[in-house]
Amino acid sequence: MTPKKVEKEDGPDRFEEYLEKLRSIVEKMEEGGLGLEESLKLFEEGINLSRLLFGILNRAEGQVEELLKTMERVPFNRGEE
After folding, report:
1. CATH number of the domain that residue 38 is part of
2. CB-based contacts of 18: which residues, under 8 Å, 6+ apart?
3. Is residue 39 assigned to a domain?
4. Predicted model pTM
5. How far apart are CA 31 and CA 29, in angstroms?
6. Angle value at C-alpha 5, between 54 and 61, nearest 5 degrees
7. Which H or E element spans position 74?
8. 8-64 pLDDT, tens digit each
9. Beta carbons of 56 and 11 less than 8 angstroms apart
């Protein structure tokens, strides 16, 4: 999978979707009544979603840090006198 494809599939625009899926899994597991096999399947899916969410957040943090570095190089009073 190419980096651009990963970014598109797992970008910030998918964050809310993944988070909602994770919430749904947590709710199902908290309700109980699931068999061991189904619980393990949901747990694995939840872990995978957590990893995706963590990756999205890490990339977003990197973008914010880059933007802040750019701001440090540009004076705020630019063009104002």
Report:
1. 1.10.287
2. 49, 52, 53, 56
3. yes
4. 0.71
5. 5
6. 30
7. none
8. 567 788 999 999 999 999 999 999 999 999 999 999 999 999 999 999 999 999 999
9. yes
